[in-house]
Amino acid sequence: MKYFLLLSVIGLCWAQYSPNTQQGRTSIVHLFEWRWADIAKECERYLAPHGFGGVQISPPNENIVINSPYRPWWERYQPISYKICTRSGNEDEFRDMVTRCNNVGVRIYVDAVINHMCGEGAGSGTGSTCGSYFNAQNREFPAVPYSGWDFNDGKCKSGSGGIENYRDAAQAKDCRLVGLLDLALGKDYVRSKIADYMNHLIDIGVAGFRLDASKHMWPGDIKAIVDKLHNLNISWFPEGSRPFIYQEVIDLGGDEFTTSEYFGTGRVTEFKYGTKLGTVIRKWNGEKMAYLKNWGKGWGFIPSDRALVFIDNHDNQRGHGAGGASILTFWDARLYKMAVGFMLAHPYGFPRVMSSYHWPRYFENGKDVNDWIGPPNNNGIIKEVTINEDTTCGNGWVCEHRWRQIRNMVIFRNVVDGQPFTNWWDNGSNQVAFGRGNRGFIVFNNDDWSMSSTLQTGLPAGTYCDVISGDKVHGNCTGIEISVSDDGNAQFSISNSAEDPFIAIHAESRL
Ligand code: AAO
After folding, report:
1. Roughly how many angstroms between the first and final C-alpha of the chain, as a whole number?
2. 373 in Cβ contact with 359 (< 8 Å)
3. Residue 275 CA to chain centroid, in angstroms?
4. DSSP sequence for 127-169
5. Binding site membership of 324 for ligand 1 (Cβ less than 6 Å)
């Protein structure tokens, strides 16, 4: 009994840090702006068969419709109500997605926009994705309902009512983020409305939440909301499971408050991860891959079991949010694949893979003036994600998660799950390698010259298929073959002009 109590206390404490993925599935993918109908299909036809643990979806609740610029992606970060009703689909389609994904062991994580409602200048009317009336000036959102009492207008101490200094804790939390009407999360009424929304989603079967703009909410307010949340739906999750919580806190250092203040309620997005890895792989500021030997805490990152990591996200892939020019994206495909490969091979953090759509990027004075452009659409209606014969996506969807190198590294991470970081090797420059116990090994050549080295892999002897240049198909390898000798050594040759200058082998790619 004592034992049981102890276990359940530990269980409760750790719960919101665990992603609730199915056993052996170790990463998730953000299907940015996808329709629910397409996500349901993707779970069944691609994500489950390739070992993806889950999907972060775009905000599912009713948002304002913005026509100038025309239907920007960011209109979804301006809530009007908590009805499940957006360009991605209605509640029936949402339920169908959650059910079908869960049935094949792929979890759904909701991007929860709970810090604010729409912008202060949004006017009034029924111009929202579900047609609910709102009046931004009067702070009226009858479909929730919220009124003037439910916002922080009186509490904010900045001159303009908006956040003027992100580093000032009180301003960051009590004032309007880029003019967005700031909810009074200190009020139990507001907390309850938000918890009702999130519980509705939990009851449908979601596994957790990204908490948008967490840096703009007091940790105590987040805790009060999280404490009101139901356990996960027992149709798919063990009894007593708590929703996975990961909080969007941009902390590149220098703020009055830190990421660690949010550890009590869940994991936190580690923005330094993509910023720094981008700098290293681009070889900016004298950085080299050899320095990655102590990647993780050694680089001043938050503890691994509190970190949600990613190379790019929907903001910083287009110059929003933080991270700056070093962020790697699909636009720099060759370096990007190396960065994602490194992330998925390395044990630090819980990783999220980005899956994007194309937009006509156009720089003026260093800024992408098309950074607002929404997903592929016909007159505002989001286009279907079509699948080409070669398994890539059509209709303007990039689908990085379907790129062979990325998809195979998602599998690599599952195969090496639980194995230690071992057999680090580097040439003092940008040729590096490391293993994960006796289950996997990865080698990078990001130098401007070719590499040819014999390295200790830690793997059992045999011939292995490199999952970056090819696949193991019916026992044969369509890419480079690597032979590991009885002592665990193998010879690796990687040209600096190779299409993908890295090689990865693992227990299940053995021929
Ligand atoms: C839109 C319009 C606005 C308009 C507003 C209201 O663009 O002009 O005023 O509507 O009508 C998204 C878009 C916004 C959009 C919004 C609502 O990105 O453009 O506004 O929807 O439609 C901060 C927050 C972070 C936030 C990020 C974008 O901390 O939470 O800004 N991300 C989330 C979402 C995002 C969404 C929202 C929040 C709102 O992922 O998609 O916005 O729901 C500093 C601060 C950061 C701050 C950045 C902003 O970063 O520290 O906290 O992020 O600035 O640029 C160095 C520093 C670093 C600094 C950085 C600045 O790197 O070290 O600290 O420089 O680049």
Report:
1. 49
2. yes
3. 14
4. -BTT---EETTTTBBTTTTB-GGGB-TTT--SSSSB-S-TTSH
5. yes
Regarding the beta carbon of 322 and ligand 1, being less than 6 Å apart is answered: yes
Query: Residue 420 to residues 52, 423, 458, 492, 495: CA-CA distances in angstroms?
Result: 21, 10, 11, 22, 28
Q: Which among 111, 178, 212 is the best mutation to test ligand 1's pocket, defined by most ligand atoms within 8 Å of the CB?
A: 178
* Residue 53: C-alpha distances to residues 43, 49, 207, 414, 441 (Å): 10, 11, 11, 10, 22
- Does any ligand 1 atom lie closer than 6 A to the CB of residue 178? yes
Beta-carbon-side half-sphere exposure of residue 261 (alpha carbons within 13 Å) = 18
Task: Check: pTM over 0.70? Answer yes or no.
Answer: yes
Select from 166, 216, 314, 327 the residue to mutate for testing ligand 1; criterion: most ligand atoms less than 8 Å from CB. Answer: 166
Does ligand 1 have an atom closer than 6 angstroms to the CB of 179?
yes
Q: Where are the alpha helices (DSSP H) in 346-419?
A: 404-415
Pocket test for ligand 1, best of 137, 250, 270, 368 (most atoms within 8 A of CB): 250
CB 196 within 8 A of CB 202: no
Nearest-angstrom CA–CA distance, 174 and 275? 28
Q: Is the peptide bond before 145 cis (omega within 30 degrees of 0)?
A: yes
Query: What atom of ligand 1 comes closest to residue 72's alpha carbon?
Result: 22
With left for phi above 0 and alpha for psi between -120 and 50, is residue 221 left, alpha or beta?
Answer: alpha
Atom of ligand 1 nearest to the CA of 66: 22
53: CA distance to ligand 1 center in Å? 28
Would you state the structure tokens that stand for residue 461, as one six-digit string?
Answer: 């002897």
Cα 126 to ligand 1 centre (Å): 26
Q: Which residues are catalytic?
A: 212, 248
Q: What is the mean pLDDT of each run of 10 residues along the chain (511 residues)?
A: 44 73 98 99 98 98 97 98 98 99 98 98 98 98 98 97 95 98 98 98 98 98 98 98 97 85 97 98 98 97 97 97 93 98 98 98 95 98 98 98 98 98 98 98 98 98 98 97 98 98 98 97
Query: Which pairs with CB-CB distance under 8 Å and at least 24 residues apart come from 374-381?
Result: 374/33, 374/70, 374/71, 374/72, 374/73, 374/75, 375/32, 375/33, 375/34, 375/73, 375/87, 377/71, 377/87, 380/70, 380/71, 380/87, 381/87
